[in-house]
Predict the 3D structure of the following.
Amino acid sequence: MNNDHSATVIRAYHHGRGGLADILEKAADNTGLSPAMMIRLLDSPTPSLLEKLFAAARRQRERHFGNRVFLYGFLYISTHCRNRCSFCFYRQTNTRAIRYRKSPVEIAESARQLARSGVHLIDLTAGEDPCFITDAEDDFASVIDAVRSIRADTNLPVMASVGVVPDTILDRLAAAGADWYACYQETHNRQLFDQLRVGQNFEARYRSKVAAKARGMLVEEGLLCGVGETSCDLVNSFDAMSRLGADQVRAMTFVPQAGTPMKDQPPSSSLRECITIALMRMVFPGLLIPASLDVDGLAGLRLRLDAGANVVTSLVPPGQGLAGVAQSDLDIEDGRRSMEGIAPTLRTCGLQPATIDQYRHWVAERKRCAYFHDRRVAEAC
Ligand code: SF4
């Protein structure tokens, strides 16, 4: 995010302060929330203001998706990583992290179990595992093979969440059938990025998503809440997500992790994440917005769905020795992060799982629109 843009948003904040009633009316009627209003909602949330915001976000979800939600199975296939992100339990030097690397047989079995349970997508996630990134001819072969075999075995869409990879690997992921590439910036404030993603390159991370889109993949961008970002940073990130043309946008609350430089940071409430989810629903009404089970487990699902999320992510099959990311074991082995586990919450929220055909249709339509959008951009250039 360049400084000029930040200054523009900050000016809008100071000049655009309206009365509370004005903000409520606009949030409720979907007449458009200015950056100043969004910052005010994040900075000074009152119960009545939030009630109206969340109701407006749910109406937007209903308008675009009815009462259907999409469900993503999560397979964390390697917890090894060469990076040292200051917020992450699995950073290279954390001796407390439990490390594993799943075999092709184990990955296939877990994917089949998730598919049988009825998820709409398999999210294949890994750290930047030095065993995958070898610079040899068969670089990344095990991940590419996993994508290909999951597609063949389950016939489900696959998301590859495997860190920043070279364009040649994106080519092979796309050829193997990966529909999605997820790679989270976490913040678009460069200074904060440098503190969070220690020793990594902001542009390279952002460009990897642009490159994935150029190869026809859909892209997920993500933000962390509670890591020292300002509300202005969050709103600026919406602009960056829009320019990227992200197809799925997620916000997650930072959870302090043992053995990391940020272990003593006070935990923040999930409310800021929920406000961010609701604001993203207002800004990007037709996009996919996750309610992750990875922060507060099943107990936090309703809050996020009530804020306008329309994808339940991080469903993890029990009994497979698989970990979560922000919460390495919360609600996994007791089956609460399963289809059966979340069903009562969906019913309470008046929602029901989409069919797999509905999800496939959304993915195909989004890819078709992205294709024409990218062509128009290319022609305009
Ligand atoms: S956030 Fe991802 S890239 Fe960073 S240390 Fe953790 S696993 Fe590695």
